[in-house]
Amino acid sequence: MNTNLLNLNAVLDVAGVLLGLCAVLAVELMSRANRRLQARCVEVESNLAAMRRELELMASISLKTGRRVKRIEHEYAGVSERVEVVELRGSAQSFDQAIDSARQGTDSGRLTQQFGLSRVEADLVTRLHGRKKTA
After folding, report:
1. Is the dihedral of CA 75, 78, 82, 83 positive or negative?
2. Using alpha carbons only, what angle is made at residue 90 by residues 86 and 93, rounded to the nearest 5 degrees?
3. How far, in Å, are 49, 61, 63, 95 from residue 53 at the CA level?
4. How many other β-carbons are positioned within 10 Å of the β-carbon of residue 130?
5. What is the pLDDT of residues 6-48, one digit of tens each?
6. What's the burial of 108, exposed, middle or buried (CB within 10 Å: 0-12/13-18/19+)?
7. What's this model's pTM, rounded to 2 decimal places?
8. C-alpha angle with apex 111: 132 to 102, nearest 5 degrees?
9. What is the reported pLDDT for 111?
10. Residues 56, 45: Cα–Cα separation, whole Å
11. What share of residues in the chain are helix, strand, coil (percent, to 5)?
12. Where are the domains of the chain?
């Protein structure tokens, strides 16, 4: 019985040593994995900071571009209306007709509406070709 007890103790001793070695190995593996994970976290944080800087730069560029677009829209707001007026005017015949109307007494406001002339053009046609006012 003593030999059985000794064999059992020897088996338990070997199992304890093996279990201890497994525990040390597991701790070492976990430690290495933890270091790799920490390195990866540092890398991700660095990439995140770089992306944040790029995003701030893009937002700044976008804001400046938006301001430029608004300024251009404001500067050229009347261009489409002026193009429509010119397209409606057609040929020089409308000037001839406007001159004839001015000679008949049509005022510059009516010339603008009727012939698509700008206000300045209608005023000029009226001054040059309109009826002379008598005092």
Report:
1. positive
2. 125
3. 6, 12, 15, 60
4. 19
5. 788 899 999 999 999 999 999 999 999 999 999 999 999 999 9
6. buried
7. 0.42
8. 25
9. 87
10. 16
11. 85, 0, 15
12. 79-129
- The token duo for 114 is 């009727």
Give SS3 for 134.
coil
Of 116, 123, 126, the residue nearest 86 (C-alpha): 116
Burial of 94 (0-12, 13-18, 19+ CB in 10 A): middle
- How many C-beta atoms surround the C-beta of residue 98 within 10 A? 25
For residues 123 and 111, give the distance between their C-alpha atoms in angstroms, rounded to a whole number. 9
Sequence letter at residue 47: N
Identify which of 79, 87, 85 has the alpha carbon closest to the alpha carbon of residue 121: 85
Query: In angstroms, rounded to a whole number, what is the distance separating the alpha carbons of residues 115 and 88?
Result: 8
